[in-house]
Amino acid sequence: MLKRLYVRNFTVFAEADFAFSPGLNVIVGANGTGKSHVLKLGYAVGVYLGKLAKPRTGQHSAEVEAFAVQAGLMNSLQAVFQTTGLWALRRTGATTGPQVRAVYDEVAGEVDFDLSRSTASTSGVVVLTPPNLAEAPPAPLFIPAKEVLSFFAGFSTLYRKYNLAFDQTYLDLCEALSVPLLREPAPALQPVMRSLEGLMGGQVRLEDGRFYLYPIRGGERQEINLAAEGIRKIATLAQLIANGSLTAQTTLFWDEPEANLNPALIKELAALLLQLAKLGFQIILATHSLFLLKEFHILTQQQPGSIRYFGLSADASDATQVATADELPLLPDIVALDAELVQSDAFLSVLNADDAHV
Amino acid sequence: MRTFDEGRLRFAFPQPWLVLKYDDCAYYRGPVERSGAGLAAVDFVVAPTTVPERLLLLEVKDFRQRAVENRARLGKGKLAVEITQKALHSLAALYVGARSNVPKLRPLALTLCAPTLALRVVLLLEEDPLPSVSAGGHLSTRAKLARVGSTSRRGDLLLELKGKLKALGIGAVLYGCDDVPAREGWTATRL
């Protein structure tokens, strides 16, 4: 589980410290304040640690092992951020290179690395504190804002063969989705699965490399491409739980879970995410949706503190500042709220002005 | 200006305007109620001295200190139905009264029968004050959330009211005491 992520001179951040809760974490901020960067960084480091934990043969020297550690991190960052070089991850105008420190439950100490050796022509990572794995951290999952089920068929093959304009998170997600279903989901997750199936009106199944929706009340299966995009996002979550890719040990990073969901589905999804958090799932999501934030606040009215919010906003120098709060009303500067405040005032004025002449 | 009190609110209209405190007037309390038809009434019927003729059906809702008990009424469309019903009931009774030459309605009869008469429902919805801007000009997130909630709810209510009345050729506006525009020519104040 990711406990803390500290960044310095990284993309839009001059310096920021994210102390994540073991449950639901919500990152909110305007476009360009680095929400997705935080998710991708957390994911890339988590994937790197997952690969690092795989058994070594012990045939290589310490130097080769150290090189492998650095190369693994470099590859993970480059694949997830899909940059031409890690130098692109430097904050514009910073005099020193980016530094990252990540703290995990499964790592004794910290994962501490420095990208300052990177230049426009070379990529380099210096792992300042080599990770000391107390146990194998499970690989995290990343659900991007775009849904993937509609282009799932053949995507992994195409991705490996061609240089596609998709980052590694899409490939990783497609691979996680393609895992066979568990014989029996964990009993604690069965109510969650029932809720998800209720929302979809059916069960999602992978057959011959394509996803289908089987209606609960029987009848013909429906190609997933014909289902609404919001339903495909719910189906993605259902498949990841049903095949055991997403467990209470897996950190889930989800970028804009509300994208393409209608308000009724957003309400249901908010309740499900909280339900998963209560079952011990660590979820780190980024959102623009004031509707989702308000729903979280409504749902946690009886249990304040069950969500940790991170508010991202740009300061005068365009560096992103991070505010942390365990209750939505305590979070300053929610851009979506300011925008809605202006819009709701304007909407009422316009409605009144419509009949001003009467 | 002529003033009228409705509960804990005071309304002031220009002297020459025709203002009928409709739900208290002898016509409504007498023949209309005695008809047993269950006709509801708006609080005020107002005819400004403007050309072309206009008639305002003003309904007052003072929900201060009663936000909780009225939340469902505000949020589930009940209030929009209630106001629409009051407006249509009032109009029906007013037209019948004008046709019958009811003395109290005589000054309004010409306005009511004007072929170009514009009709408008005015809902004066007074609610508990919203958190205000602090001395430093800053509004806290809690205050912003409260404001968004209230303004959105009022916008939704007005949209719903307009949706019901527009097809009947009746306009609708929604104000609180503090946001009645100067162009209206009348004011509402808290007592």
Question: Explain this structure to me?
Answer:
The complex is a heterodimer of chains A (358) and B (191). In chain A, strands 9-13-14-3-15-16 form a six-stranded mixed sheet, sandwiched between helices. In chain A, strands 2-1-4-6-7 form a five-stranded antiparallel sheet, with helices on one face. In chain A, helix 5 packs antiparallel against helix 6. In chain A, a hairpin with a 2-residue loop joins strand 10 and strand 11. Chain A has nine helices and 16 strands. Chain A has 358 residues and is of the alpha/beta class. In chain A, 43% of the residues are buried. The mean pLDDT of chain A is 87. Chain A starts with a strand and ends with a helix. Chain B is an alpha/beta fold and 191 residues long. Chain B has one domain. A five-stranded mixed sheet of chain B has the order 3-4-5-6-7, covered by helices on one side. A three-stranded antiparallel sheet of chain B has the order 1-2-8, with no helix packed on it. In chain B, a hairpin with a 2-residue loop joins strand 1 and strand 2. In chain B, helix 3 crosses helix 4 and helix 3 packs across helix 5. The radius of gyration of chain B is 18 Å and the shape is globular. The relative contact order of chain B is 0.18. The chains are: A alpha/beta (358), B alpha/beta (191).
